[in-house]
TrEMBL record, chain A:
Organism from which the protein derives: Geodermatophilus africanus
Name of the protein in its database record: Succinate dehydrogenase subunit C
Principal localisation: membrane
Compartments it resides in: Membrane
GO CC aspect terms: membrane
From TrEMBL, chain B:
Annotated protein name in UniProt: Succinate dehydrogenase subunit B
Source organism superkingdom: Bacteria
KW Iron (keyword) present: yes
Lineage: Bacteria, Bacillati, Actinomycetota, Actinomycetes, Geodermatophilales
Protein source organism: Geodermatophilus africanus
Region (Disordered) residue spans: 1-21
Length: 234, 279
């Protein structure tokens, strides 16, 4: 095919900062940071099975890491700043690419059928929004306690037990965690592609790893609310 | 049954063979009609009769157009050229999938999709590729010049022309030449863009970047190529890739997602090396 481009056809070039692949890389790297945190978070949660004392001590330890070399909460504050930066970067890249995709096809098909897409890949955007809202609720509930039945000023263990004793609250957590699992299942594969680390040979392994990792991680998270709900922890 | 086989002939047919039956399939077509780029466009329903299962999808549209012309109506405009599945001109959204991939059972171009994949009485929705970067010219024909401009921005090598050099003077590993060849089978039909939920042209651009980036001749311009081609595809108004895989599934040449990973790898490398898109 031969097409001669008229000078007028070339639209005003944008700088490299609007590069869609670079945005995807921001999404991938911030996502990896958040996944690393989730691994630590899930393992830490399992402390609940070691009893009330152990769990509350663990919660206290997180706030005092590095003391007395550094003032109280220094390590925690650093972790929180990194996480907040990662969340903001992740959301910024997502919104920016979402809008680009919207502009790329403002009028959809009358009939459109998927051939290959997974449910996980289809729910990345709205699933991500729901998980984001859940994180806000989760912090108000268990970290700050303001949205918790026990209220603020209580021990982390009491807040956890009080919350998950309510089947409705447990249901919210289960739904959000399943959505998060699907988000990670596609996200891990997508990040591998975006960072240029996938190929035909690795494709199957990467997808299998993403699935197994998500199931194990979310399974680990779900263990806690279900144990409280069924009276194994109380 | 011979009629289900590629290239079944009328001679091999019997009285019960659908190909020999006095009346072939009757189909209801819902086709996107749009008078021009500025027209809003709408789906219009047509009926076609006597469709042989051996016809290609485009031949079926030819039958409809003959009918429309005889009736004094405007025929349906659609792109086509070689009708051998190698030129990349044809491309229709058929029942919601690019090139009718949901019906074909395997990688195909619209011209190589045959009517034996459909049943008598079927309703078939036919739409153009839909993307901001592919404005509709008329009916089912879209302007895919955006893909040409992506090629112009870096899908080439700068080398003196003249007598072909001795083939053995530059050795290429078999693995690389195979992968480059697979990428080079892209015919630029735009099905990847049409099938992508984000209307992204990543598979197309990635195929071109891979094709040249795997060859020794492509190395001198490797960084500039990827950066300029991605910048151009963003400029054309394509969406970003979310690695869903609809593109590769719809691709008539089965170009794989690994090419997208290779593009990303090259692009991040080029950015690190300080390459910036030319304006």
């Amino acid at each position: 095919m031969v097409t001669v481009t008229q000078p007028g056809q070339r639209r005003t070039p944008k700088a490299a900062k609007t590069n869609s692949v670079a945005k995807k890389a921001v999404m991938a790297v911030s996502g990896i940071i958040l996944v690393l945190y989730l691994i630590a978070h899930m393992i830490g949660n399992l402390k609940v099975f070691a009893g009330r004392e152990s769990f509350n001590d663990y919660s206290h330890w997180i706030r005092t890491i590095g003391e007395p070399a550094v003032p109280a909460q220094t390590t925690l504050t650093i972790i929180r700043i990194v996480l907040l930066a990662a969340v903001i970067a992740h959301i910024w890249a997502a919104i920016s690419l979402w809008r680009q995709a919207k502009r790329a096809r403002p009028n959809g098909y009358v009939t459109k059928k998927a051939v290959a897409q997974s449910y996980a890949s289809r729910t990345m955007r709205w699933g991500g929004v729901i998980v984001g809202l859940f994180v806000v609720y989760h912090i108000l509930d268990l970290t700050m306690g303001v949205a918790n039945p026990e209220g603020p000023g209580t021990t982390p263990y009491d807040r956890l037990v009080a919350g998950f004793s309510n089947p409705l609250i447990t249901a919210v957590y289960v739904i959000a965690l399943v959505l998060l699992g699907m988000h990670l299942r596609h996200g891990i594969w997508s990040a591998t592609q975006t960072l240029g680390q996938s190929n035909k040979r690795r494709e199957r392994t990467v997808n299998l790893f993403a699935l197994v990792f998500s199931v194990v991680l979310i399974g680990g998270f779900l263990l806690v609310p279900f144990s409280v709900l069924f009276g194994l922890v109380g | 049954m011979t009629a289900t086989r590629e290239g079944a002939t009328f001679a091999s047919g019997t009285a019960t063979d659908p190909a020999m039956a006095p009346h072939g399939m009757t189909l209801t077509l819902r086709i996107w009609r749009q008078k021009g780029p500025a027209d809003k466009g709408r789906m219009v329903t047509y009926q076609v009769e006597d469709i042989s299962p051996d016809m290609s999808f485009l031949e079926m549209l030819d039958v409809l157009n003959e009918k429309l012309i005889l009736a004094g109506d405007d025929p349906v405009v659609f792109d086509h050229d070689c009708r051998e599945g190698i030129c990349g001109s044809c491309g229709l959204m058929i029942n919601g999938t690019a090139h009718g991939r949901g019906t074909s059972g395997g990688p195909t171009t619209t011209c190589q999709l045959h009517m034996r994949k459909f049943k008598d009485g079927d309703t078939i929705d036919i739409e153009p590729w839909r993307a901001t970067a592919f404005p509709v010219i008329k009916d089912l024909s879209v302007d895919r010049g955006a893909l040409d401009r992506i090629i112009q921005s870096g899908g080439y090598i700068s080398a003196p022309t003249g007598t072909a050099p001795e083939a053995h003077s530059i050795l290429v590993p078999k693995k690389d030449s195979d992968a480059a060849f697979d990428a080079a089978t892209c015919i630029g039909c735009g099905a990847c863009v049409a099938a992508c939920p984000n209307a992204s042209s990543m598979l197309f651009t990635a195929a071109k970047v891979s094709h040249l980036g795997l060859m020794p001749q492509g190395q001198p311009e490797r960084n500039e190529r990827v950066i300029n081609m991605v910048a151009q595809q963003d400029r054309e108004g394509f969406g970003g890739c979310t690695n869903i895989g609809e593109c590769s599934a719809a691709c008539p040449k089965g170009i794989s997602m690994e090419n997208i990973s290779r593009l990303n790898h090259d692009l991040l490398g080029a950015l690190r090396a300080g390459a910036r898109p030319k304006s």
